[in-house]
User: Fold this.
Amino acid sequence: MISSTLKKWIGLPITCENPKSIFVGLIGGVGDLIAAAPSVAALKRKYPKAKLTFGVGDGIFFNTIKNDPNIDHFETPFSYNVWKKRGHRKAYREKYKEHDLVFLLDNGNRDWWKPQKHLLDIYAEKCAVTLEQRRPLIYLNDKDVKEAQKKLNELGVSNDDKLMILSPETRSKKEMKEWPYDRFISLIERINKNYDFKIITFVSKENPYDYVGTILLKGYPLGPSSAMIQKANFYLGLDNGLTHMASCFDVKMISIHIGFPVECCGPLSPFATTIAHKPFDPPDSISVDEVYEALQQSI
Assistant:
């Protein structure tokens, strides 16, 4: 049996019954970080006296978890070579110099999805914790809520209006995960013809499309976006960070899930309807009729 001291020196995970400090690291996207949040909360319950540090990228990634009350300290930007075992061991070795327990949650294998385990469950297993609820978490602050309401007022969206949030873009793997633009336009036309939703569309600043028939917000900040989704009557999106944010709230939603298996990264919400075919099927394999019929049933 390898001693804990030797494991630390080699760069391998160890166990500790009464840690004074814990480091959790994740070089992941918005959806990954939200999926990891329940494990962070469970670690805090398991070791309430330990100081918990979270290593995360900067910008939008830090903003995703900056309000998490279970995190005592952030290390940002945090990075290491995720895809190399040597990189993992080096990161473990360095973090064990300052912490009693270290959890690096990144999947160091590009075939991570093949065991068909959801990311949320993978993170819980790595942290050796039991989750109170199998659902992602995000924490808003008052500033986010007030900013979202201010923007809705500016856009002429009142509390009496039925609000739909549309998220038709992914941050990465666009060719694999994004539904064709013309199909979104056809779907928007049907929704506007038959329902009285006001549709707000969130996309990046670089997105070249106009999404006619909706109110377009380009590059809108993550926190207020999340607060606006919480207020919405309906959410419609792809396999992206905003969809996982929506699954944190009790909002009816549809996820057009293209790419990785649903079992691995689909939205975990009792209010979600997921439309998916076989993993890695072409994006145009999902028809407008399928999505619209699912929307009719959900509404």
Summary: The chain has twelve helices and ten strands. The radius of gyration is 20 Å.
